[in-house]
Write a structure and sequence with these properties.
Radius of gyration: 32 Å
Largest sheet: 6 strands, mixed
Number of domains: 4
Number of helices: 7
Bound molecules: adenosine monophosphate, magnesium ion
Oligomer: single chain
Distance between the termini: 25 Å
CATH superfamily of the largest domain: MoaB/Mog-like domain
Number of strands: 28
Strand order of the largest sheet: 15-12-16-20-19-17
Length: 456
């Protein structure tokens, strides 16, 4: 980091009494990280691949939607005047001069006393100014074989109002309107609108390629046969899945071993091939925590101690590609839960910013009562892995299991993080606490409502 005030070599042990003064807060770390990211360049992609991406230009309608006035019902196109005073006891008889399915045009004009049998979506024939649905004609009764007229005649049982059941041209969108402003996040409905405008491609910020580099001599590739003293690399897979979830494209690199040559080689590969480099492990104070040294030599890097748990320590900086382009790097802790939590808190906003979703990354934050006692002894803000479940119609925060930073299964059960503030000894059972929802659909608090506050 060029700003030396953000650079800190941690000597903290996690003991409250010797926390260094320059430990930075989660918010401050996030702010410093986000400063180094910008929305990526614009690319034209098929609309069917653009879900959750952000437009880089205004979308202007080139024609009306619907493009022509059409019927919203199956029935008869009529002249409303011809149906005046029609009733079941005194229906009006019209002669049927045409049949018009959707996709066809009626080349004649409907004259007084005439009607055209018409299907939903078909253009309104010239001369007609109302649609009488089958339900209001004798055809409705045809199913009961009681149609009272010949095929070329129809009885109208209800008086039609001018314009009835007609969807006018431009009812939805008029030609020349800005349908979506630049910066619109494309959800399913927005994509459907683009298709209705006849567009098959759209300009959006491209998705970031995020290189993922696990480091450690102890790591095996999942699928490799087990060997004593080793563990399987879970960070690459977990982080890659988070990257996909957040909208990025992961590029999993080979595992770097704890030597300068291997690390340097793979870091360079990541830098050259990605927009953002994520490493895990090797940034603490162990004998083989070489990532630090390599980072310091190859790039501009800051080592911070963020006042959070799990998640200490964290490295952040930038590398330069051969082309001169800057590639931000986030060095995550090695412990699997720490890696995922820090990536949730710091990597997610960065990916969102690259996608052009500058303000869309905060997660819902709610207040809920904790059922469990959540202990926090070491002065840092603690993010506890929890679920929210309803108990006697009250949503309760429940721990998902052991909370040390290697316990991945409690992470796998969690749908939320309860925040223990740094200046407390934890959250007592029955106490209200703040909770970040990371998987909103899977929190089971039934009909109860939790008031959402500003996001986190
Ligand atoms: P380190 O930061 O290298 O000291 O690693 C901290 C802890 O995280 C150690 O127990 C490592 O074995 C573990 N660890 C590091 N990288 C990974 C990984 N990719 N997958 C699973 N555990 C890891
Ligand atoms: Mg290690």
């Amino acid at each position: 980091m060029s700003d030396q005030s953000n650079t800190y070599s941690s000597t903290a042990t996690g003991n409250r009494s010797i926390l260094p003064d320059d430990m930075i807060s989660v918010q401050e770390a996030r702010r410093l990280i986000l400063e180094k990211f910008s929305p990526l360049d614009s690319v034209s992609i098929p609309i069917t691949e653009a879900l959750n991406q952000v437009t880089t230009e205004d979308v202007v309608a080139q024609f009306d939607i619907p493009p022509y006035s059409n019927t919203g019902m199956d029935g008869y196109a009529v002249i409303a005047k011809d149906t005046k005073n029609a009733s079941y006891s005194d229906p009006k008889k019209l002669s049927v001069t045409g049949y018009l399915p959707a996709g066809k045009i009626f080349n004649d004009t409907v004259m007084p006393g005439q009607a055209v049998r018409i299907m939903t979506g078909a253009p309104i024939p010239n001369g007609a100014d109302a649609i009488v649905p089958f339900e209001e004609t004798d055809e409705y009764l045809e199913k009961d074989s009681t149609k009272k007229t010949e095929k070329n005649e129809v009885l109208i049982n209800v008086e039609a109002i001018t314009g009835a059941n007609i969807r006018p041209a431009g009812e939805d969108i008029t030609k020349g309107t800005v349908v979506f402003n630049k910066g619109t996040i494309l959800g399913p409905a927005q994509i459907a609108v683009l298709a209705s405008l006849g567009l098959n491609n759209i300009n959006v910020h491209r998705r970031p390629i995020v290189a993922v580099l696990s480091t450690g001599d102890e790591l095996l590739y999942p699928g490799e046969s087990y060997a004593d003293g080793k563990i399987y690399d879970s960070n690459s897979s977990g982080l890659a899945a988070q990257i996909i979830n957040f909208g990025g494209v992961p590029k999993i690199l080979n595992i770097a071993r704890d030597n300068v040559k291997s690390l340097t080689h793979l870091i360079r590969e990541g830098v050259e091939s990605a927009d953002f480099l994520i490493t895990s492990a090797g940034v603490s104070r162990g004998d083989f925590d070489l990532v630090k040294a390599v980072l310091a030599k190859e790039g501009h890097i800051g080592f911070w101690t963020v006042k959070m748990k799990p998640g200490k320590p964290l490295a952040f900086g930038t590398f330069t590609k051969e082309s001169g382009a800057q590639v931000p790097h986030l060095g995550l802790p090695g412990n699997p839960v720490s890696a995922m939590l820090t990536f949730e808190l710091f990597g997610r906003p960065a990916i969102f910013k690259m996608l052009g979703k500058i303000n869309a990354w905060p997660r819902p934050l709610v207040n809920a009562i904790s059922k469990d006692r959540i202990v926090n002894t070491d002065g840092r803000r603690f993010y506890a892995r929890v679920v929210i479940e309803e108990e006697n119609e009250i949503p309760k925060v429940i721990l998902t299991g052991k909370q040390s930073s290697g316990i991945l299964t409690s992470m796998s059960k969690a749908t939320a993080f309860a925040i223990c503030p740094s200046d407390t000894s934890g959250i007592e059972a029955g106490q209200m606490c703040e909770v970040i929802l990371i998987d909103r659909e899977n929190n089971y608090y039934g009909e109860s409502t939790l008031t959402e506050k500003k996001g986190y």
